[in-house]
Amino acid sequence: MKKTMISALVLSAASLGLPAMTGLTPVYAAAAPAIAGLPDFADLVERVGPSVVNIRTTERITQKDVDAAGQADEMQEFLRRFFGGQIPRGQTPRRRNLPTPGQEVQRGIGSGFIVSADGYVLTNAHVVDGADEVYVTMTDKREFKAKVLGADARADVAVLKIDASKLPFLTVGDPNKSRVGEWVIAIGSPFNLENTVTSGIISAKARDTGDLLPLIQSDVAVNPGNSGGPLINLKGEVIGINSQIATLSGGYNGISFAIPIDEAMRVADQLKKSGKVTRGRLGVQIGELNKDVAESLGLKNNKGAEVTLIEPGSPADKGGLRVGDVVLKYNGKDVDRFADLTRMVLGTTPGSKATLTVWRKGAPTDLQVTVGEADPDNKVASKSGGKRGEQKGSATPASAANALGFVVSDLTAAQKRELGVTGGVIVEDTEGAAELAGLRQGDILLMLNNQDIVDAKQFNAAVAKLDPKRAAAVLVRRGNQAQHFSLRPMPAAK
């Protein structure tokens, strides 16, 4: 094996135009020159390393903890006496010295970094969650007890303050200017190994993992203990806070995620001022728009967020937003994916005005909404989900399904009042395209290709005129939610 490896080194050196190696002497005689194009991180690490800290958290033992430990010891003694010492491997029958209430024990470790000379430190919220005391250790071995000014679990950002001055600190960079393929490094305390440096490249930006913030994906080795440490570019600027890893084993698997530092700093500023974060709220549920529905509605692409539910009395309701609207822009910014709208709204100051550009009845229209304040655990705009209820009709259905596969009837006046609509029809039966799409009895049909459905007669007449070569968009309400479905009409029988 050693011989094979040495031969590979000789071939590699020759391919790079380096001096030929005879035997083993050149391997140890002098280091090979740096390969052009690859960065030397040594100076960078020397410059920024002192700004990165180790974070140790502790908790105090309670009487409940002592009682639980005592019960565990009693169970071990019982097993030893009555079962001949058949105690699970790794356990010992010897009674432990039980902790005392108020005793401080280590809870966890993590990383962080200093962002100002007067002792403000950023880390992840999950690093300090549940801790009774937090300690910050610097590279020069100075240790400080830190005060947690605030932690936001939704963004996974926490701000600490230590009593010190003239500290080294990191410069905050602009992650929007970073490019995929760019070199970055991480410094932290993986597995409690302080001041560990790893490097790699940015693998993707604005990675949507279902969390509040679009994350920076990299292949930098990040492991337990790296959480809260900085992701640093070659200029020495912090562009993200290392927060998550994609893993099956609990260790590094080649994919790690960082919170963009600009988003983290917005959260941190609020935490420094008030210890909490306030977020905006519209009071809607939204869903993804598929390509066929977008085409049927007359849109050029399937960007945007479809409104599937509006809470009565919510800011969206008061602002004139309707179920079935497709939100294309928020305060002039494009909504490329439906998750973008959630993040934009959450980032809006409650009480401020927001302009929404929505696609309604085949044309864009602007609405102004006064943004409300979100509850800490209440999502402002979430993907539609959950089991939908059913509405049952009472009118006599038509004798045969139309070209979309619907058998419909008119809504009664009582049903319209209950649903809060002025038109629409109720589905009595389905077949063909409607059945395959999962539509069923009790669904309410509100719009067809951007046009309001008035009654069964008008709806069936409009369906009869549809081009069988083009899919049609039908706005369907089920329970309290509504969603567009793309259905292709069946050609008329010859």
Can you put this structure into words, describing what you see?
- This protein has 494 residues and is α+β, with helices and mostly antiparallel strands.
- It has 12 helices and 28 strands.
- Strands 15, 16, 17, 18, 19, 20 and 22 form a 7-stranded mixed beta sheet that branches. Strands 1-2-3-6-5-4 form a 6-stranded antiparallel β-barrel.
- Strand 11 and strand 12 (237-245) form a beta hairpin.
- Residues 1-32 and 377-399 have low confidence and may be disordered.
- Low-pLDDT segments, ≥5 res: 1-32, 377-399
The overall pLDDT average reads 81
- Range of helix content: 10-25%
What is the overall shape? elongated
Amino-to-carboxy terminus distance: 77 Å
Number of beta-strand segments: 28
Proportion of β residues? 25-35%
Largest sheet: 7 strands, mixed
Helix-strand category? alpha+beta
Rg is: 31 Å
Count helical runs.
Answer: 12
Quick take:
The chain is an alpha+beta fold.
Secondary-structure topology with pairs:
Layout: H1 2-15, H2 25-29, H3 42-48, E1 52-60, H4 63-82, E2 104-114, E3 120-123, H5 125-128, E4 133-137, E5 143-152, E6 157-161, E7 171-172, E8 183-188, E9 196-207, E10 215-218, E11 230-233, E12 237-245, E13 256-260, H6 261-274, E14 280-281, E15 284-288, H7 291-296, E16 305-310, H8 315-318, E17 326-330, E18 333-334, H9 338-346, E19 353-360, E20 363-370, E21 372-373, E22 381-383, E23 406-410, H10 413-419, E24 425-430, H11 432-436, E25 444-448, E26 451-452, H12 456-464, E27 472-478, E28 481-487
Parallel strand pairs: 7-12, 15-22
Antiparallel strand pairs: 1-2, 1-4, 2-3, 3-6, 4-5, 5-6, 8-9, 8-11, 9-10, 10-13, 11-12, 12-13, 14-21, 15-16, 16-17, 17-18, 17-19, 19-20, 23-24, 24-25, 25-26, 25-27, 27-28
